[in-house]
Amino acid sequence: MSWIRWPGLVAFAVVVALLIAGVKLVAPWAIEHTIESAGSEAAGALMEVADVDISLLPLGIEVEGITVADADAPMANAVEIGRLAATVEVAPLLWRKVVVDELTGEAIRFNTPRERSGALPGATAPETGGGGEVGGAAGPAALPKLPTAKEILAREHLDTLDAAAKLKAEVAATRARWEERIATLPDADKLAAYRSRLEAVRGRAKQDPIGTAAEAKRLADEIRADAAQIRTARADLTADLQRLKEQAAAVQAAPAKDAARLKAKYAPSAGGLGNATRTLLGPGVADPIDKVLTWYRRLAPYLGGGAGAKEEEAAKPTPFGGRNIALPDREPLPDLLVRTAHLSLELDFGKLTGEIHDLTTDPPRLGRPTTFAFAGDHLKGAEAARISGILDHLDPTRPRDSAQVALEGLVLAGCTLGAGAMPVAVAAGRAGGEGHLTIAGKQLHGGGDAKLDGLKLTTEGSGEGSGIAARALSGVDHLALRVEIDGTLDDPAIRLSSDLDRLLGDAVGREARAQAAKLESRLKSAIGEQVKGPIGEATGGLGGLGDLDAGLGDRLKGLTDLSGEAGRAALPGGSKRVPGVKLPGKLKIPGF
Fold first, then answer.
1. Which of 29, 141, 331, 358 has the most CB atoms in a 10 Å sphere around its CB?
2. Of 242, 264, 262, nearest to 254 (Cα)?
3. What is the distance of C-alpha 545 from the center of its chain?
């Protein structure tokens, strides 16, 4: 009697074989699809996998030919990985957790070319060309060809025209207001009426000297009151004229200010922080930093998190009316954890090897931050390189990530600094330095210092100023470079400074200042011709206000003279007074 039921055993073996075959055939496809879909979403560009293989004893996954396109340059790969191999712990899978005990990555390269675009469907293609400079301005050594004054004025608006138009409108409004006010003031007709009354009083003086004296006094008072009214109006008009003359002086000075403003905008700089350094060294320094920050922004949502969201999700009702109850873990484990990753980075200057520990999407649950360290010695393009750091997201509300970089003996020969009108070829030279970067929330703080020694520089450009720059650079054999990083992730500020600013600034500054002076002179002449008419129209109206003032002066003089005559007529016998005879100095005249 046999204890083995062969038909059942065969059936079991067949089922197991089918399950294994299904896992080997279906699981790789599912994993490949998941990696490509999730990776493309995270990178913002196409992620592709060449092959996926699964081993069961022990449980492991091997992925080959991973490429992640650069969203900013779809015809290049931001990252290319030759092979990834992971050993997965089985027990955590029962709790729907993926724990990779050990991950190995080989042939990891950056910025490699693609045969076809890696842009996602519907993505907007980025603009090509330009960029690469910190601050985006050309350095003084380039001395680009300046636009003519005519070309500048064709594209720029002049503040002078606005000031002239404003003055013209103000003069017209002031004149209209004063013409209306002057129409209400005593005029020549009223002066003639006063004179007629005075003559009548004088004609009756012999018959009624006392009565006519009183009447003459009343007439003098009326005339003086009208004179005071005109005197007040004239003082107000004088104030308005002074104000408008000050505005006219500002309009006259506006063309020079316009010329200075446009010169500052279009003329080459005579030096200053970052000009030469930015042009020549900016792309090599700022571009890698900007690329790192770009990828950090994309990956930041996957670097941190909290167990609270997971627990809340687990407590949601199921479609069948029950609830998912999260059982306590034997040890705190996030949904995804890579305990140790051994990676090999193939950079332009050589291969760096290193490890990443505790890489997870839920650091608070794990209770440990992610750390990484890479190093390489005796590389093909450098003596040594070190990269290390920590990603601390234990408190999701206060993440703090930091990294340190050190390079020794980086070979510079064969590279080109700058671009455009004045690229500089490096025939020989080495660089070394240290730098650090801290990202606290969204705030950036970092910097570094580097020294470039044994330099031999030659200019390759033929643009204006290249001869001056070539003579200045021929004597440069070493440089000290300083990098400062601050701002935020969304608006980083990268500042560069070096000896190059002073060396090239001294050589090129004189040429730049000469060009700026010529441009300003031409702008003054061109602006003067363009605004001559509007300024003339604006200031010409002041003459009309001056005429109004002169007219008020004539009225005031006439009234003043007549009031004097009326006052003399008010004296006893005043109508017979001999002109030119002075009254005693101490004589008191009633009403005066």
1. 141
2. 262
3. 47
**3-class DSSP state of 267:** coil
CB atoms within 10 A of CB 81: 20
First to last CA, the chain: 156
Instruction: Give the Cα separation of 304 and 428 in Å (integer).
Output: 44
Classified as helix, coil or strand, 257 is helix
Three-state secondary structure string covering 82-114: EEEEEEECCHHHHHCCEEEEEEEEEEEEEEEEC
The identity of residue 246, as a single letter, is: E
pTM over 0.85: no
What pLDDT, in 10s, does the model give residues 560-585? 888 888 778 767 655 444 343 343 44
The beta strand positions in 488-591, using DSSP E, are 492-498
Rounded to whole angstroms, the maximal C-alpha distance in the chain is 175
Q: Convert the pLDDT of each residue in 467-500 to its tens digit.
A: 666 666 777 788 888 899 999 888 888 888 887 7
Q: CA–CA separation, 95 vs 100, rounded Å?
A: 14
Q: Indicate the domain borders of the chain.
A: 165-269+530-565
Residue spans of beta strands (DSSP E) within 329-399: 336-347, 350-360, 370-377, 384-392
Quote the CA–CA distance of 119 and 23 in Å, as a whole number: 32
Instruction: Say which DSSP state 184 is in.
Output: T
